[in-house]
Specification:
The protein is about 20% helix and about 30% strand. It is α/β, with parallel strands linked by helices. β20 (about 285) and β21 (about 290-295) form a beta hairpin. α1 packs parallel to α6 and α3 (about 205-215) runs parallel beside α6. The protein is elongated, with a radius of gyration of 31 Å. The chain binds adenosine monophosphate (AMP) and magnesium ion. Adenosine monophosphate binds near residues 187, 203, 248, 249 and 297. Magnesium ion (MG) binds near residues 183, 184, 249 and 297.
C-alpha cells in the first residue's frame, strides 16, 4: 500500500506527452499549442483610422479651436476596405471611417465630433497632433514577432489571434484516446429495466463524461462480466487506445480478475492499493507506452480516483502546464469525525464570504453514495492521522472548476 502522493508521483512519471497533430483552428480550443507561432505579417497590416472623422495634415490644424477653427477642403470619402488613390496635401482633408487606410500625405485623424461639414469644406475645431487617432501598422503584432509560444493553452482569445494571423490549421498535442471498461456481473445497461440483484452501469457514464470534460477522446467498451475470458477480450480491445480505464474488479474478491488479466497480458504493475478512502484498491499498470488505470468499482471511488489521478495524467499527456485543480485553504463549518488510518477525500460544498472559503460535507460520505459527489463543489483533503476536526479547523480543498448553485 502506498500513500496518495506517491501514487500520483508514479503516475505522472510514467505519463508521457502526446505526439503532435495538425487540426483546424476551431478544433484546437482547449488544447495546447505544439509550435511557436511567428507572425508573417504586421497587424494591423497598414496605418488606419481609429475613428470616424477626417484625415488631415496635422500642421494645418495648428492653433485651431472652437472659436478659431481651421477650414479644409474635403476631396474624398474613405470607407473601410478602400485604399485612397488620391494624396493629401496642405489645405485638404478626406472623410475617413474607422479601419480605413490613412491616405498618403495625411498624418492624423480628427474625429467627427470635433468638426462641422458644410458643402465642400470642413471646419476643424481642435488641434490634431501628428499620429492622433492613427493605428500604426504592426502596433498590435509586428512581422516576425513570436506571438504565441509552444505550450500555450488555446482559449477563445488565442483562437482570435491565430485567425488574425491567417492560421487556419495549427499543431497541438494530440488528445489521448481513452478506453473505458466497466466490469461486474451485477451490471446492466442504463436503458434496461432493473432486475433483482442488478444495478445500472453508471461508472461508464461518469468516466466518459470526465474524459470528455478534460478534452480527451473516450471509447466506452461496455460491460465485461466477471470472467477471465470476457475481461481479457475487452481489455485487449481497450489496449488499442492510449489509455485504458477499468472500473471494478481490482479488490480482493474471488471474481476480481482485472489484475490477473493484466498480468497475463504482460502489463507491468506499478502499484496496487493506495492508503486512501475512498479508492483504496486502485491499481496502475504500464504496458509499453499504454497506461492502464484500474479504478475500484464503487461509484464515488471511481469518480474521485479519476479526478485526483487520471485527470492530471491526461492533462500532462495533452501538454498542459497546470495539471491540478486550484487548491485553497478553507474553514470547516462543522465538527468532523471519522476513523483515522488512511487519507480521506471528503466531498464538500464551498461557500465564499469576505474573501474566506468555508466548507461543509455534502452529506453521507460512503463510497457508494454518488450523490455526495454530484453535490460537491470541492474535495477536502483530510490527512491519514486525523480522526477529529473541530468546526473552524483549516483544511486543504481542491476546488471544482466552477461553483454551482444547488
Ligand atoms: P468492485 O470494485 O468490482 O468490487 O465493485 C464494488 C461495487 O461498486 C459493486 O458492488 C457495485 O455496487 C459498484 N459498481 C461496480 N461497477 C460499477 C459500475 N460500472 N457502475 C455502478 N456501480 C458499480
Ligand atoms: Mg466487481
Amino acid at each position: 500500500m502506498i500513500e496518495p502522493e506517491e501514487a500520483l508521483k508514479i503516475i505522472l512519471e510514467e505519463t508521457k506527452i502526446q505526439p503532435v497533430e495538425e487540426v483546424n483552428l476551431l478544433d484546437s480550443l482547449g488544447y495546447v499549442l505544439a509550435e511557436n507561432i511567428i507572425s508573417e505579417v504586421d497587424i494591423p497590416p497598414f496605418d488606419n483610422s481609429a475613428m470616424d472623422g477626417y484625415a488631415v495634415c496635422s500642421v494645418d490644424t495648428s492653433g485651431a479651436s472652437k472659436d478659431k477653427p481651421c477650414e479644409l477642403k474635403v476631396i474624398g470619402d474613405l470607407p473601410a476596405g478602400i485604399v485612397s488613390k488620391i494624396k493629401i496635401s496642405s489645405g485638404l482633408a478626406m472623410r475617413i471611417m474607422t479601419g480605413a487606410p490613412i491616405p498618403q500625405g495625411a498624418d492624423a485623424v480628427v474625429k467627427k465630433e470635433d468638426t462641422d461639414l458644410s458643402g465642400q469644406n470642413v471646419k476643424i475645431f481642435c488641434e490634431a497632433k501628428e499620429g492622433e487617432n492613427v493605428r500604426r501598422a504592426g502596433e498590435d503584432i509586428a512581422k516576425a514577432e513570436k506571438v504565441l509560444l509552444k505550450g500555450t493553452q488555446i482559449k477563445p482569445a488565442q483562437v482570435g489571434l491565430l485567425a488574425s494571423l491567417g492560421k487556419a490549421k495549427i499543431y497541438i498535442y494530440k488528445p489521448p484516446t481513452v478506453a473505458i471498461l466497466s466490469t461486474g456481473d451485477e451490471l446492466i445497461e442504463i436503458d434496461e429495466p432493473l432486475q433483482p440483484g442488478k444495478i445500472r452501469n453508471s461508472n461508464t457514464y461518469t468516466l466518459t463524461a470526465q474524459v470528455l470534460s478534460v478534452g480527451a477522446k473516450p471509447f466506452p467498451l461496455g460491460i465485461a462480466s466477471d470472467t477471465f475470458e470476457a475481461t481479457e477480450r475487452l481489455i485487449k480491445q481497450g489496449l488499442n487506445s492510449d489509455v485504458l480505464i477499468t472500473t471494478g474488479g481490482v479488490s480482493m474478491g474471488e471474481y476480481d480478475v482485472v489484475k490477473e488479466v493484466s498480468a497475463k497480458l504482460g502489463a507491468e504493475l506499478k502499484f496496487w492499493k493506495v492508503a486512501q478512502k475512498p479508492g483504496m484498491p486502485m491499481a496502475f499498470w504500464k504496458l509499453g507506452e499504454k497506461l492502464i488505470f484500474g479504478l475500484p468499482g464503487n461509484p464515488v471511488a471511481t469518480a474521485l480516483c479519476f479526478e485526483e489521478y487520471v485527470r492530471p495524467s491526461l492533462l500532462k499527456m495533452m501538454g498542459r502546464k497546470f495539471l491540478f485543480r486550484p487548491e485553497v485553504e478553507a474553514i470547516l463549518e462543522h465538527d468532523f469525525k471519522r476513523k483515522a488510518g488512511r487519507a480521506f477525500f471528503a466531498r464538500v460544498k464551498v461557500r465564499v464570504e469576505d474573501g474566506k472559503c468555508y466548507v461543509s460535507v455534502t452529506g453521507p460520505q460512503g463510497s457508494g453514495i454518488l450523490k455526495s459527489m454530484a453535490l460537491a463543489e470541492g474535495i477536502a483533503l483530510i490527512s491519514k492521522e486525523v480522526s477529529f476536526l473541530e468546526a473552524g479547523s483549516k483544511v486543504k480543498v481542491h476546488l471544482a472548476e466552477e461553483k454551482e448553485d444547488h
